[in-house]
Every structure is written in C-alpha cells, then in structure tokens.
Amino acid sequence: MRAELGPHLLLVVALLGAGPGAQAMKGVKCGGVLSAPSGNFSSPNFPRLYPYDTECRWLIVVAEGSSVLLTFHAFELEYHDTCSFDFLEIYNGASGDKGNLLGRFCGHAPPPPFTSSWHVMSVVFHSDKHVASHGFSAGYQKDVCGGVLTGLSGVLTSPEYPNNYPNNVECRWVIRATGPATVKLVFVDFQVEASEQCTYDYVAVLGGPGPAHGQHYCGATRPPTLVSLGRELQVVFKSDFNIGGRGFKAHYFSGECQEVYMAVRGNFSSPQYPSSYPNNIRCHWTIRLPPGYRVKVFFLDLDLEEPNSLTRTCDFDHLAAFDGASEEAPLLGNWCGRHSPPPITSSHSQLLLVLHTDRSTTGRGFSVAYIGGEWEPPPSHQLVPLPWVSSVPSPLTSSCHFPG
Predict the structure, then answer these.
(1) Which of 143, 166, 183 is the last residue of a domain?
(2) Which of the two ends of the chain, N or C, has the fewest CB atoms closer than 10 A to its terminal CB?
(3) Residue 243: predicted pLDDT
(4) Quick one: the chain helix, strand, coil %, rounded to 5?
C-alpha cells in the first residue's frame, strides 16, 4: 500500500464508524475498509442465503488522485418496486451523505459498473427480517479507464494523466444525468497526438448537438464546452501504437449541478437547498441574457463551510462569480462562510456562478435571485461610478436600467 494512503485511512475509518454498525446481527461479521488497489467482496454467506436483519458497510479507499471502478459478478436480492426491504446502495464517497448516493438496487438485475469521481466509494448492504436470497459478489479496482458516471459532477482524465498516456488504449465513459437533465463537459487541459482528421489518437464525444455528435478531437487545442442533447454524453479516448502526449482533463456537470438561465429574471439555489449540499462537487450556473443586457445578482442566503482559520481565505467550500460564461472570465468575487455578500453586476450579458465543495463539512448552501437590465452607454464616454455596483472590482463605463 502506498505510504500516502495512511492519513486518508484515518479519515475514512472515522467516516465508516460514524454510521450504523457493520454488524447488525449477532455473529455476522461483514463490511470494513478495503484499501488494496483491487479486490473482491460479497454479502455474508455468499453464494448461500444471506442472513436476516443485517447491515454491512464497505468503504473502498485507493490512493488520492485515483478513481474506483465497481463491477458485479453476481446479484440476487429480494425484489421490491422501491427496494425498501433488502437492498444494496452505492455511494460516490462516504455513505453518511445521501447527496453522494449513486443508486439503490434489489431484485435479480445487477447494477451497472460504476466509476467514482474521486478515490473513495461506499457500498451498503441491508436485509430485513423476512425473505433471504443468495446476495451479491462484486469486485473493484483503481485507476480504471472508462465506466458509468452518475454523480452531480466529477473529473475525467486520460490514463496516467498528467504523465503521457500509454499506447493502445481505448476508454469509454458514459456520463448520465439523473432525471430529465443534461450533461455539460468542460475540457481544462488537452494534449493528444495531432493528425489530419484525428485518425490516430483522439477523444470523441457522442450525444452532443450538431458537429459535437461523434466529433473527434486531437492536437493541443482544447475542445469547446459541450452540452448533451439528452441525459447522456459518451466520451471515448483512443490511442494507437506509438506517439503519445499528456492527454486530457475535463470536468463534467449534470442535473441540478449545471443550469443555464435565459429569462430576464429568476432565482436558483445550491443542490438540495435548504438541506445540506453534497460533498465533493463542482457546479456551474450560467445566466445568459440577450446582447445589450447586464446581470445583477442578489444573495438571499449563504451558508458554506467557514474560511481557513489560519489564512482567512476560502480554501475549502466556496462560491465564485465570473464576469462571463467561463472560469477564465474576470473574477467578480469568491465567498464562503455565513455572511451574504452585497449584489454583484456583470459588465456584459453573461455571468457564471461556480460552487466547489470538498470532502467534509457542509452547510445549507446558497440561494440567489437575479435580474437583467438594459445597457446604456454614457453620452460623454466618461467613467460613471454607480453605487449599486460598488462590489465590482473595476469601474464601469456605462449605466444600466433594471426594471423595478
């Protein structure tokens, strides 16, 4: 086991012990921390009938910077239409946070393969006092290539990123939003062997609009931001027998973790608000108004993890606003804690809010309202200071009328 895993094991053991015990029936031992790079586990007594009234919790922890692929070899639990009796739950992280829940399963159909968006995954098995079946057998491994991603947000990277990717690799990821939502994919780094029509090494994205449907990307130019037409995006990475590169890194956002607002006024909030937001997410909300408008955002509530006690900076959970449609736009502000900031105003027709949370300590989140105003250039082309945009870090060269 790698040496740097030690501190993380202390954390996850604490998380494991925070929930109900892994031994819910006298004489039945199950669950625990799985920290090897790969392994297998199963329900008690598998392949014989599992015991009644039992709950087992497994916490899978691999080296930081890696991901976990979970696959099922066999699956047979008591069936119920809402899986309320015997069930298996899979979490993208610790099982104590329902915001990390990837799915609950029962019956005879095995769950699909799941890939975590970080180096921790949890599995919970529960049986009631009636009807037993043969249970399940599952395996996991770290640093996998491809899989089904169903979290609100996460990261995709080529194998061994940021080191050069290996030859003769083919990876397939399916990013699946929950419910009638879309998926947004943003590339933050990209270096793949260049070739005409990208016939050697490439990244392909399926399920997007227009040319993004099946478009191949290679070279050193980052692909554009892509949004799915439906609730799925498929990402394929392929390398040939020679010449490689650093590969790629991309963030994905889905469901209530990525929205685009085009109405002149509206409001929105963090996932699960006013309940606690999930750990380990990165969410994008874009306000996109017609040309000639600017956006004013009012903070109705803010309850995030407090700033770093040593530096007093927002190093943990934080909400940031950008004066444009991407994180490369000028920063309007970065906030954490429980003090609602004053209103902010964009200099153009688009504004982006980004919520980033870490692996521990959550709060209520945030709630905001926004309104669009028509842009009016001053007749003298002089700098015009406006009291309602005093929080914008640079003076504006226009005035703006917001409807009452």
Answers:
(1) 143
(2) C
(3) 87
(4) 10, 40, 50
